[in-house]
């Protein structure tokens, strides 16, 4: 039996199509009988009994399937996640992108995705926060740590980042240091009313299902907007290639430039709804409670429209 | 036989049954004969529903009319890691509404991973006159307004525990809704709340409740208020501090140290957010009597951690960040001979490079030095088969073993082999193992070991492991006591599931996400086994819009006597007999 990777991404023959109902039923009945008796396990997988639901055969796996329903890349597609630069990506690629996709987007199928790899953005120090947040594994829910723990660690990282010459986790903590940490965390404690700044709810007008996004996985508005665009506008999958510049097809909205049908807004600590992008990122982080992707038509009166600025481009970090 | 059963009057049997608390024993009693079933159901006071969708409220109420204590669990465990989208379900309101009329004398509600609304909390506050215990573990959907209703109305409340719930924190004012006449508080856990509660209200509450034994504060309570609170509750047994950080000031330190010394019954400490080493000595006097210590939010380094744990000779449970390093764990092994449970969390879970010197060696040391160690959760960045085998031989009494290597599919870092043999040693030596989470590079062989040896295993978590359906088949066919199986990102498909379909009815639930189970197989399972709910979660749209052979994103299968549920969001479909008709 081929290994895991062998089951995937091999362009195979056409799908045999659904078997007839009768034959499917009879196969199941055979299965039930076999299950009742002691079943010999051999090194080669003999469980098959020709159980092919909709095609493919034992040993070949589901290769033929992929071309039809679109290829959803998950972390298992990639032999090693170590030091693979994340080129954040999209699902629903067809099987052109098979196992040679060593350029890694570890896109878990559930859709919530972390942003691109850490780059020093807009004055955010890359040392502590990016070290804390971004790493090789961009997979959802991995490592398996509860959100409140992650947020708690990040809040502490934010506090210590204010010390220039002390990196996070440094052993030497002087009085000054503890004072800074204390002050830093006071801000966080009160600014963070939910107790878990990282994951905030995102709703989009017209979409009943809300999502959550981890704000701490982002260091800039661009990456946040990208993630949200992928989360909510996936119904028109772009024809993008893996790696390289992320393509924005005409169908995808660009939430930050004010030109599309939707704008990105947030509710701040005081309960006011503001346009995302006006204030510096750090200030945004400390006041945001939740996000809403609002129809542009309803967004009037929210404050000055977000002006196009230099340097705000949807481009891939190097 | 009938004669024998009816030879005791009902009252006598009922009295005898009243000494039986365990659910399994109660279930066994109820199956002896019809009259015992009847007697037992009238006197069962406590019910536990491990999956709120396995049974419906009317069914429970019909069978057990005199319940005083209810425990319900909702979402699958992987919801903790963001794998279950919002709106999946687990709503408690229907249960509360049904119990409000059926169980007016209900005293205790314990919920885990359920959606609790303010309306539900208000209904609880209004409906149960003798309400005593509310535990909301990892729940969400409510705000501090709901808490205010509980505080204001539940005169006999003893326990309010919000552990790790996600609360819409509108303000800290809710705490002031406990009336001045309210004095029955025994346990309060608000550690998950973000906003400040009124400190004077808190101090007054603590001061007027003489039976208070557990108090877990939230981060917003500053260190300089802690002494006052402690002085008002010297009888405390369990304390969670707030922020454990302040400018080092001698008077603050001495009043804190004095307050701690006054708490002679203190056995459990937690909190310690942003802990500053300078204030740790304040707890040294009580360290020798501590049995439980949660330092998993304390970013103190290994020197200070080592000094601290070395004084805790009675310690049974330690939760700590990996700052403790191997050296601290060696000290733990040397000084804390009564240790039963160890959890080591990563300080930088997403960093590529290790930031601390915590390796497999630390866990090996503890397994050698602590003979009672039976429960482990360990995050690390490297592991070897040898280390696992050593741990297994050292600790055959291990019952819960959860290892997480940060890098998925990491091999034995010395031999570069899969960790099959290491985990094989664990299941072979630890014959009472109930819970296992595996990590690293694993082939089908590890599943063969598990199927052959892990006969007492009840819960298994698997990620990025295995080669083929054979792996899943080994587990489903071999693990006789398996109740919960959760799998993500493994190449398991239809065959093992379909061959072992009957097994699924003996389990509470099965979760599979990012695997290779086809929609067709899901339909088949749902159609053929009526007492299973086979739920497909797919955010790409109806599974029927794709070929049958297409794998589903997520699959959650659970046994139930309540039939398919009707509160599912748009991205969840139940596969059952009608699904062929409903799915276009």
TrEMBL record, chain A:
Residues 81-101, 156-188 are annotated as: Disordered. Its main location: nucleus. It comes from the Eukaryota. Residues 160-179 have a biased composition (Basic and acidic residues). Keywords: Auxin signaling pathway, Nucleus, Repressor, Transcription, Transcription regulation. Coiled coil: none annotated. Belongs to the Aux/IAA family. This is Auxin-responsive protein. The lineage of its organism: Eukaryota, Viridiplantae, Streptophyta, Embryophyta, Tracheophyta.
Automatic annotation (TrEMBL), chain B:
InterPro entries: COI1_F-box, F-box_dom, Leu-rich_rpt, Leu-rich_rpt_Cys-con_subtyp, LRR_dom_sf, Transp_inhibit. Signal peptide: none annotated. It comes from the Eukaryota. Gene3D superfamilies: 1.20.1280.50, Ribonuclease Inhibitor. Residues 8-49 form the F-box domain. Keywords: Auxin signaling pathway. SUPFAM superfamilies: RNI-like. This is F-box domain-containing protein.
